[in-house]
Design goal:
The chain is of the alpha/beta class. Helices cover about 45% and strands about 15% of the residues. β7, α6 and β8 form a beta-alpha-beta unit. The longest helix has 20 residues. It binds nicotinamide-adenine-dinucleotide.
Length: about 290
Amino acid sequence: MNPEGIRTIAVLGGGTMGNGIAHVFARYGYTVILRDVERQFLERAVENISKNLDREIRKGKLADGEKAAILGRIDAVTDLDSISRADLAIEAVPEQLELKRRVLGEADRVLRPEAILATNTSSISVTALAAATQRPERFIGMHFMNPVPIMPLVEVIRGLQTSDETFEAAMSLCKKLEKTPVAVADSPGFVSNRVLMPLINEAAFCVMEGVATPDAVDNVMKLGMNHPMGPLELADFIGLDVCLDIMEVMLEGFGDPKFRPCPLLKKMVAAGWLGKKSGRGFHVYGGN
Ligand SMILES: NC(=O)c1ccc[n+]([C@@H]2O[C@H](COP(=O)([O-])OP(=O)(O)OC[C@H]3O[C@@H](n4cnc5c(N)ncnc54)[C@H](O)[C@@H]3O)[C@@H](O)[C@H]2O)c1
């Protein structure tokens, strides 16, 4: 599909990433169909988008009058058939292979044959996800970073069968959103999470082994390495469940024990301490 012909975007999943992706596309004039499984998740997603737009207004990045028009371009739906008019759909449901395969298979059946299907997966093979559809040549990885409205990078990942046309369309779309696309190969965790997640995982081991408290670990990395956020603060922000899922995918994908998830991370996820979104992770968050 010609990038100019892409005007309507479906976003599958309205969580942390889905609402950010919907925000950015609507902000740049695209019509967005945001789909989640329950009304309450969509309400939360639209509320987050509204709050994030307010922040952009406060920072002088967006004119006050534009907010209503941006929100007006987002159609929040629970029924799958509503996505049939999309030119491109981006999947942003949890990082689990079987769930993603199901969601992508369903979307593939509803979308027009010429539409592009993209996944925001952080670590799962794009080639394997493409195989859940009948359009592997029009399937691609578009890995946006969190928070999507702020972070400039999109890792663009070609599956084995992704066509040049689909790749060019994805690259051009990122530029239209004023993002910087970086093409990387289809390998577990791509580049971003292959480098980042072992850092977070090792930070969790430091806490588990009593080497340092979460605050101390974060301070070492902020003050000593000039990282803007400590690794555990970042893990809380990403979601500890998301971090665990990514470590599991890399462990399975590489078969290398260096990717084994820290037992403390597993335990915290089992306890429902998922980070900022649940009010508690390595740190405790008020008002959530
Ligand atoms: N959190 C991050 O920092 C981050 C960064 C980059 C990429 N990612 C990737 O983005 C994807 C989504 O992560 P997230 O953090 O937004 O997760 P999340 O748990 O915040 O959101 C997932 C959303 O998907 C919805 N969902 C579940 N099943 C669905 C279905 N069948 N149809 C539509 N919606 C459905 C859930 O209700 C939820 O609202 C994952 O693949 C993750 O690895 C996450």
